[in-house]
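ok posting inputs for the alpha-D-glucose-1-phosphate-6-vanadate job
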Amino acid sequence: MKIHKVSTTPLSDQKPGTSGLRKAVKAFQQPHYLENFIQSIFDSVGDLRGQTLVLGGDGRYYNRQAIQIILKMAAANGIGRIKVGQHGILSTPATSAIIRKYQAIGGIILSASHNPGGPNGDFGVKYNISNGGPAPEKVTEAIYHRSKVIDSYQILEAPDVDLETLGESHLGETVVEVIDSVHDYQELMESLFDFDRIRELLTRGNFQITIDALHAVAGPYAHAIFEQRLGAPVGTVRNGTPLEDFGGGHPDPNLVYAHELVDILYAEDAPDFGAAFDGDGDRNMILGRKFFVTPSDSLAVLAANAKLVPGYSEGLAGVARSMPTSQAVDRVAAQIGIESYETPTGWKFFGNLLDAGKATLCGEESFGTSSNHIREKDGLWAVLFWLNILAVRQQSVEQIVREHWQTYGRNYYSRHDYEEIQTGPANTLIERLRSLLPTLKGKQFGNYQVEYSDDFSYTDPVDGSVSDQQGVRIGFTDGSRIVVRLSGTGTQGATLRVYIESYEPDPSKHDLDPQEALASLITIAQEIAQICELTGREQPTVIT
Ligand code: VG1
Ligand code: CO
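and the output
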C-alpha cells in the first residue's frame, strides 16, 4: 500500500482548550483540518514506531469518518498497533483504562464531550498520554506550535477498515485490533467494587434505579454493567444506544439538560437512585429520590465513605479538587488528616498528583469525579461507588447526604453560566475584574467582607510548572467565595461561569434552596462583575 505525503497549509486556530481541540463539525470537515491536527499530534509525541495507540470516540457525527482517516495516518506514521473500539466507540474513561492496561504510548479520543453533536453540532479531538490522562499543557502547547508550521501530513492509501468485527487485521505494516468497547473497563470496575453486594441491592426488589445515557457513549457500558452483570431489570438504562446527534439533545448531565431523568426522580413513584452521563461518559449526575446531590458534595461523600469500598479500603492518600469546586471535600480531608489539593479547572491538572501518589480521589464541580484507577474522570465509576456505599449503609441517598452535612456542615453551592455571550465584552469583564482585585480586600458588601481576592495561579507540586490566570477568586471572611472565569470548552462566543459558595455549620439551616441561601452573594457577584451592564444578560442561561 502506498503512503502519500500530502502538502498542506498550517492553520492558526488549532489551540487545544480545557479538554482537547473542539470546533463545529463543519470546521473539522474543511479539507486537511483534521489531518493537520492529527499530524501535529504525531509530530509532537516522539518516536511512534512500533508503539501501541488507542483510538475511539463517543459516536457523534463524523466519528466514523475521522477514525478511518486517523487509522490510515497512524499506519503511515509507523505506529505498530492500534487498538480501536468496536463501531468506533470508546468512552473517555475506558480509553484511559485501556492505555494504561496495555502500556500504549497514548490515545486519541474523538469527542466534544457535553457539547451537542450532529452535522450542525460540535466535534473534538483529545490526545491522552501514556499514563492514560489528558496531555498536560507542555504537550498541548507543543501540538499547537506544530500546527502553526506544519506543511505536510502522511496518509496510507487503503480501503476503510471494518470496525464492526472484533479481531486483528493489517493496515500496511500496522496491526489494527478492533476491541470490545466494554470488556477491559468492566474488568477494572469489578476489581474496585463489591459487585456481589451491589447485585444483591439491585435484585432484592425494593431498590430501583434509573440510568440515563442521554443517547451517548455510556449506553453500552451501562447496559452491560447494570443490566447484564448486576441484574437490574432491562429498561433500567434509558437512551442507551449512542446516536450521532444524541437524539437532538445536549449530552450534559445536569438539572437542565437531563430534565427527563430529573422528572422521573421527582415523580410520586420515583425510583431510589438515578444517574446520567455526558457525551463521552466521563461526567455523572447523582440523584436520590426527590434529591439532587451537587457534584462537590458527591466528591466529599465519596471521600468520607471510601473505606466502605473494597478498592479504597486502605484509605486515601489525599484528595484533589479544581479551584471552583466547593470546599466540602477539604473538610473531610481535614478530619481524616490528609492533604486536599486545589488545582485549576480541567482533568489534566490531576495527572501529576495521581502519578505521584499524592491524591487518590479527585473531583470537579462540573459533574466530574474519579480516582487513581485511571487518569480521567469517570461517570460510571462514580455511580458504582455510590451504589457500593448504598449497599453497605442501607440508607437512602438523601439520608447519607444529610448526615454528611450534620457532621461536616453544608457548603451551599451553585454555578451560573452565561452562554454564548460576545467574546469582546466577556474579555472586558474579566480584564476589569482583574484590575479591581488589588482594591477589594477589606471592602464590605452587605454582610460580607472581602478577605482576599486574586487571579488563581497554580504551581504543580510535582513538576513545578506554573499555570497563571486560572480564574478570579473573591473570598470573604466567613469562608464564602465567588469565582469568575471564562470557559475553555465552548465553540461559539464566550461562556462566563460564575461559581458561588457559602458555608453553613448549623444543621437547622441545611434545608434551604441553594439559590435562596446564596441570593445575596449572587447579587454581589453580579454587581462586582457588572454582568448585566457588560453582557446585557439579566439572567444566566444555565444554573446548576
Ligand atoms: C468544563 C468544566 C471543567 C471540565 C471540562 C471538560 O470546562 O468546567 O470542569 O474539566 O469542561 O469536561 P470549561 O473550561 O468549559 O469550564 V468534559 O466532560 O468536556 O471532558
Ligand atoms: Co466529558
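notes: The first strand starts at residue 2 and ends at 7. Residues 92, 113-114, 278-280, 282-283 surround cobalt (II) ion (ligand 2) (CB under 6 Å).
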